[in-house]
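Its record is set out here:
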Amino acid sequence: MTWPDTPEGKAQRHEDYEETHRRCAVRIREVLKTNGGIYIKMGQHLSAVNLIPTAWSTAMRPLQDQCQPTPLPELQALFLEELGQPLTTVFSTFDPTPIGVASLAQVHVATDRQTGRKVAVKIMHPDLEEFCAVDMKTTTLMLKVVKSFFPTFEFSWLGEEMEQNLPLEMDFRHEAANAARAEADFAGLKKTSLVIPQVLWAKRRAMVMEFIEGARVDDLRYLAEHAIDRNRVSQELSRIFSRMLYITGTFHADPHAGNLLIRPAQPGSRSPYNFEIVLLDHGLYFTMEESLRVNYAHLWLSLISPSSPAIEAERRKYAYLAGNIDDELYPIFQAAITGRQALDPSKKDRGSMMDLGAQTKEEARAMRIAVAQGGLIESLFDLLRRVPRRILMVLKVNDLTRSLDAALHTTHGPARIFLIVAHYCNLAVVRDDLDNITRRYRSSGFSVSLIRDWFAAWWRYESWNVSLGLLEMGADAKAGVEKWRLWFRGLREDGWRRAWEDAAGIDH
């Protein structure tokens, strides 16, 4: 098919490409849905990757909450096989209707018979193991076959990641260990809104945790009814996952809204606000080595710095060190990090990430057109081939947290989240600087250059801290003004109730 080289022809070409992507994506989604199990898991991974055409990620999104529950008799048989005891022996009550169904398991509310405590019981789908090995080999083989016909096609990484991590996700003892590690990583903080449900016991295919009441973190009406500031919720989410990514180096790799609950702060809570964020499903965790974390932190700090030739060179340097990205792919990598069109140092309103306002419909459309119309898609696949797998997972987490910020209808703008990430990047960099200085001291002893480098590291860290703090104060003040503007608009249009809903970001 050819299209005339006219504005109308180009527009038609774009629509035809988008329709082709949409049609193929829906067909693949239905195949994944029909096959269930790990195929749904694969679709869920794709739904969270913004590096693929929008039609594909959008088409896969329904798979996040379209898993079919396993009938109770099959669960009872698995539980008996796993523990050697029936459900009725361990629990005095067991709700047969699951409160959550995922691709690998489902969760029921029960009462522990010994303690009388209300608990959440997670049980694996019984037929999963029977077909898992065959399904994984089939998936990996098919991805390789497709790649042999279309060499630029690059989704083999998805099969490799699943083949490596799925066996771990299918052992709930591994999930319990991840939860314990995350709890330990935040245990030393005096203030944090994070709550991780206590795991009471875990077997390979069954696990019991404390039951925690709450609502989905993006339930705006719940937030408004409990006087919870949605801007603060988004900011706390960013702090939690930034600490994991840049400081501890071990991170939860699936922070979508279904894995996050929110509840009012409980007595004795460490939360600095009137709410707590409950993080669920700790099956998928990754660890980043220190050099990769620090290089990526350097890259992030350079992206929010005012543009200059020196800063531009620094951006490209750390894009190569963190992502194995050369100058040709750098603009695409940069767009993947920010979720926006690439920065342009020649333009005052696009020189750094701090210049980016809310994404306009025109910008979103321009990005879709660029991806859909051929050339850029090959560059995206090239990027997927080159980038370290851990960085791909970091980009996935960034995309998910950005989606949560959008779902919360925040009024602080995208730069507010960038500032929080920058705080943790700044901390990661100075800790690395001080570690290097300490190693030099132990190796060579005291020197003037050592003192000079220590002072330089301290000065950079404090300069960033002061600058970021001032920018945060300005962003929060602007967000507060915007909330009042929405409140007055609602009051003027339809009275007190509408004012309350508009200020809370609730759609009508």
